[in-house]
Design brief:
Mean pLDDT: 84
Radius of gyration: 19 Å
Low-confidence stretches: 10-41, 44-63
Helix content: 10-25%
Strand order of the largest sheet: 3-4-5-16-15-18-13
Number of domains: 1
Order of helices and strands: HEEEEEEHEEEEEEEEEEEHEEEE
């Protein structure tokens, strides 16, 4: 093949690659982000790797790794964080621990609010909140899958799936199975799964690795928000890491490219971005 012909072929291939990247992009509020791929039915409890989040590409190392901490570090009164190596150092867990006596959680359905998908960082900046983490599963049209409730009002119905429900009732957090239904008096709720820690026990899961996001409850009733960084974890590895952080109950949130968390208090900023915006989130705000 002549040098001239090789040059022409290289230009054509580069042009096709650029067209494909442009074709796959959509503009979300505040930024132009990669569109989510078609999403399959989520995994049931007891399985690994929720199929709604596409697996990481070979060689993907997850989000950038923040610096390790020596145990829990205070961000503000009632708000702590830690960064630790997990799974033999193959990844890091970034966890935020929230005291609900000083903060409250809000489950936001951004689609129902007419905002459309947003990154959690944009959401924190817009709402002047302290922190936020991505919510549950959604389909290729950004429609949430599973129960969403804010201020006692449901914006998305309960899904009959082998998942969990994280909820706030009378200022106290709970994680229960879908079949237990919703208790009267709940103010905030988000359905996702599988449950990762159940009464201090970590169940078995089928093997799969991905970037992870989750929510847990400690024995003192504090809420843990956590994402992985710098590597991929199986659900069991993620669950064991949450248990090691003090969770007696924990639930998986949407992972893969959806996994993201942002927190800012004083001079400390935790920025764990995902690959694209999300249609639901859990926000941490000051005051009860």
């Amino acid at each position: 093949m002549s040098r001239r012909l090789r040059l022409v072929l290289a230009v054509v291939i580069a042009g096709l690659a650029g067209w494909w990247v442009h074709r796959e992009r959509v503009c979300a509020p505040g930024a132009c982000l990669l569109a989510p791929p078609a999403r399959e039915a989520p995994a049931q409890e007891g399985q690994r790797g929720p199929a709604t989040s596409p697996p990481a590409a070979p060689g993907e190392s997850g989000t950038a790794s923040p610096a390790l901490t020596s145990g829990w570090q205070g961000l503000a009164s009632g708000l702590d964080y830690r960064v630790q190596e997990v799974a033999g150092g193959s990844a890091r867990l970034v966890a935020l621990r929230v005291d609900l006596r000083e903060y409250h959680l809000a489950v936001l359905d951004l689609v129902a609010q007419g905002k459309g998908p947003m990154t959690v960082r944009s959401l924190v900046e817009e709402t002047k909140a302290v922190a936020a983490i991505n919510g549950g599963y959604f389909d290729e049209n950004w429609r949430p899958l599973g129960l969403l409730m804010h201020a006692g009002k449901r914006s998305n119905p309960l899904r009959q799936a082998d998942w969990g429900i994280f909820l706030i009732r009378e200022g106290r957090p709970q994680i229960r199975h879908t079949r237990e239904g919703m208790p009267a008096g709940a103010s905030e709720a988000l359905q996702c799964g599988p449950r990762l820690v159940i009464a201090g026990r970590v169940p078995q899961f089928k093997p799969a690795e991905s970037s992870r996001a989750g929510i847990g409850i400690t024995s003192e009733g504090r809420v843990l928000l956590a994402v992985t960084a710098g590597g991929l974890l199986s659900l069991r590895e993620f669950a064991l890491a949450l248990k090691a952080c003090g969770c007696v109950e924990a639930m998986n949130l949407d992972g893969g490219p959806s996994a993201q968390m942002y927190a800012r208090a004083g001079s400390v900023e935790l920025d764990l971005p995902g690959a694209y915006a999300v249609p639901s989130a859990i926000v941490v705000a000051a005051g009860r």
